[in-house]
Design a protein that fits this description.
mainly alpha; oxidoreductase; transmembrane helix; 2 domains; flat; Acyl-CoA Delta(11) desaturase; 0% strand
């Protein structure tokens, strides 16, 4: 039984390694590298309004991921009428995290392992 468990864990681990989304990895590395470069090059020249705008946009995206993709569509913890669903979908789209269908699928798989 122990060897069966170990082989199942190995297979699951191997499948996860092979399923790396290289396009996403490249985009994340590029965006973070660009952000660090921009911070050093333009860090002292940024206006307060720009910083506030970035925080507001980040909050909107985070709200869309948390309240929409995570709570509403993945775990179905509450029901929402279509106007709220549209607002949450818009907020989620600001986060830039693939399609909603991919996010929900990946997160449900995450909870199975």
């Amino acid at each position: 039984m122990d060897s069966l468990y170990k082989s199942c864990v190995w297979l699951a681990t191997q499948a996860r390694r092979d399923d790396l989304k290289w396009q996403n990895i490249a985009l994340i590395v590029f965006s973070h590298t660009t952000a660090v470069w921009g911070l050093f090059k333009y860090g002292g020249q940024v206006k307060l309004a720009t910083v506030l705008f970035a925080y507001v946009i980040g909050g909107i995206g985070g709200f869309g991921v948390t309240a929409g993709a995570h709570r509403l569509w993945t775990h179905r913890t509450y029901k929402a009428k279509w106007p709220l669903r549209v607002i949450l979908l818009f907020c989620y789209s600001v986060a830039g995290q693939n399609s909603l269908f991919d996010w929900v699928r990946d997160h449900r798989v995450h909870h199975k392992f």
